[in-house]
Amino acid sequence: MTDAAPLCRATALVKEFTSHGPMLSRPTTFRAVDDVSFEVFRGETLALVGESGSGKSTTARLVARLMEPTSGTVEFEGQDVTSLKGRALHSFRSDVQVIFQDPYSSLNPRHTVEGLVTAPLRYQKRRIPGGARAFTRSLMERVGLNPDHSGRYPAQFSGGQAQRIGIARALAVSPKLVICDEAVSALDVSVQAQVINLLRSLQRDEGFGYLFIAHDLAVVRQIATRVAVMSRGRIVEQGERDRIFADPHHEYTRTLLAAVPRIDPEWDARRREAERRRAAMASEAS
Amino acid sequence: MTGENVNDTTGDLLRVEDLSVEFRTAAGATRVVDSVGFAVPRGGALGIVGESGSGKSMTSLAIMGLLPKGGTATGSIVFDGKDLLAQRESAMRRIRGDRIAMIFQDPLSSLNPYYTVGVQIAEAYRSHRSGVSARAAKKVAIEAMERVHIHDAARRADHYPHQFSGGMRQRIMIAMALSMEPDLIIADEPTTALDVTVQAQILALLAEIRRDTGAGLILITHDLAVVSEVADRIVVMRGGRLVEQGSVEDVFSDPQHEYTRRLLDAVPRIDDEIGELRTTAIPVLPGMEKR
């Protein structure tokens, strides 16, 4: 499943926010991320789960270098990237891409799909292989969008399609690590399933690592290789996906799993049985 | 199931028949709810599920007489023997909040930031119960807060909305609804913005209230698992139309409509097989792929 050297390693990450109250009062410090360490390997998905305020999104931002940690380090392919600047930071930016929750607010409404997905390359002053039009068309095909729509604007797409544009934009620079920050949370269930399948098949083809930030444990169970559970800025437990779901060690993980609403498994079993009967009847009839 | 004759059910608390909602725009009329019908018996819990654009929220707003400007409802909505669509606005105002209470997704936007929660519950109560003193209403408010398990309710009643967490604010909205002793509670995505552990608490609270007060419940949500746990009947909507209805057990264990089947296939499970989520061939209704 994984080779020996991790793609990305976070070590003892800490992020503190200081808020200044009324004049002369002492500023208060809030520790959003507290001594967080983990590794992400090529071709695997590490899910960071937790409730609101657990620090999972802040952790994602630290890894993507969208925010500076108070202390701790982020290594990418063995190199410390915590204090990269200039050209080295540029090159790191094309290795790590982020897909955000709200596709509409993360896509400039005044740009066409072509403008959006080629922006990362233009920003990095890189040549667009095969020209912008052909490049855009091939990316759109890879994420399941109609390439004839490359001249359209984000508002002309549904939520699921807009999220595919966000994914296409991330793919444009051939990243090695893709950070999905609640990337499927805002989508309708049928669309969500399609985007999860797309993310999985892209990973199979490209072999990149995912850092998958989510609050929905049922979604995480479908996509994760390993899971880290965060609460109040700390990772309380991490391990292989099946172990976490079948045998959670930490009390908080147990509470979280118990709270997930469930469809009665017996109803599901009967539904599948009915489906099998229907399929058998249909094949007999034909 | 589909096409079930709602006329046969007598003594229903709420009976919706042939309900359509249209919006008049410059480009002509758009029908967002198309001829739906269902019933809620006294003390029953109905879940209305659908994806975005299914018309589930417009259906609930039509019941409350709270359609956005330009929207008109036709058909009939009979609540406790009265057709709500035939009521004047003044009569609707008396029914709304008093006999039918509504709980929305975002409690913060339903609460006034400038008043303490105790005052807001008390004032809502007094607006429907003329002649009740402020002191008596405050007492009702504190009792309602106690019933939704807010600790130290007498002190917390003097706090402002921002001093409560999201889950606590939703409890306050439920307390406000409860103080009127409504016959029907309509909850539109009441737990969608909440963390999963808080959601579990709020769903348990709604179940407890139903048991204790005998109020009917309509739960509008996109989450099939939530409906399966809370409701006894389910209505599946899509593109403004009613796709399928029945008892939750019947619909979840033997869905009759292709759309319901595909929807159930697409729900990721916490305790089921892992594999490619089946997403094939969800038939797209005209106009559904737009936002």
Task: Please explain how this structure is put together.
The complex is a heterodimer of chains A (about 290) and B (about 290). Helices cover about 40% and strands about 25% of the residues of chain A. Chain A is α/β, with parallel strands linked by helices. Chain A has one domain (about 10-285): P-loop containing nucleotide triphosphate hydrolases (Rossmann fold), CATH 3.40.50.300. Chain A has a six-stranded mixed beta sheet, with helices on both faces. In chain A, strand 7 (about 175-180), helix 6 (about 190-205) and strand 8 form a beta-alpha-beta unit. Chain A is globular. The mean pLDDT of chain A is about 90. With about 290 residues, chain B is of the alpha/beta class. Chain B folds into two domains: about 1-90 and about 185-290, Rossmann fold (3-Layer(aba) Sandwich), CATH 3.40.50; about 100-180, no CATH class. Chain B has helices spanning about 55-65, 90-95, 105-110, 115-130, 135-145, 155, 165-180, 195-215, 225-230, 250-255, 260-265; strands at about 10-25, 30-40, 45-50, 70-80, 80-85, 100-105, 185-190, 215-220, 235-240, 240-245. In chain B, the strands form two sheets. Chain B has a six-stranded mixed beta sheet with strand order 6-7-8-3-9-10, with helices on both faces. Chain B has a four-stranded antiparallel beta sheet with strand order 2-1-4-5. The longest helix of chain B is centred in the last third of the chain and has 18 residues, at about 195-215. The relative contact order of chain B is 0.16. The interface of A and B includes residues 191, 216 and 262 of A.
